[in-house]
Amino acid sequence: MTYRIIASLLILTACQRHINTPQPNPSATQAVIEFNLDKLNFKKSIELLPSGDSISKTALLVTPAVYDSIMQGINISEPLDRKHHYVTVFFLDKDLHKDSLIRYENILGFGIYTIKRTIMHYKLFVKKENIHTPIDDFTCTAQTIYCLDNNIIARHFIKLYKKPVTWLPIFDQKKDRVILSRHELTERLNQLIKF
User: Among 158, 42, 183, which Cα is nearest to 95's?
Assistant: First the structure.
């Protein structure tokens, strides 16, 4: 009788473990990207989602220390309030399916989502003369990280530079869900973008 109970518990535990294991995205490609910024050099395995319209997207979860190192490796025209950062979305002038080495010169711009007193804010930075500066027209509130917003920005960079663009969110915390509703950032991006 005791052996049956133990065996049943083992089977239930094994099934539970199998149920909770995250399944890979069947349409994604496994890749290893390498960051080479200033004093930071690290490699990380990621899933690359299929590209379309010259835009690729993926996401990267890193430790807070690595996140800080990435942000410190970028020339920014103003000091950042790092303690409120939620995620930084980088816009890279490359297709990571073909070349997975990310250097400073590949960063066309980035958007920072911060959370202050339960309100999410957004600020877009664009590289000008090798320094990333904020675009005041796109400093606003946002409900969440919305794929359409990042695709609009990526398409603008594609128009400017005539190259494929990958947008790469880098999180140092649990990812937020994507919602399908409009908010202030979307409304501003739907106007004519001028950097």
Answer: 158
Tens digits of residue pLDDT in 90-116? 999 988 888 888 888 999 999 999 887
> Backbone phi, then psi, for 33, in 5-degree steps?
-100, 155
Task: Report residue 195 as tokens.
Answer: 């950097």
Return the pLDDT at 1. 52
CA-CA distance, 167 to 94, in Å (whole number)?
9
141-188 pLDDT per residue, tens: 888 788 888 889 999 999 998 988 988 888 875 444 444 445 677 777
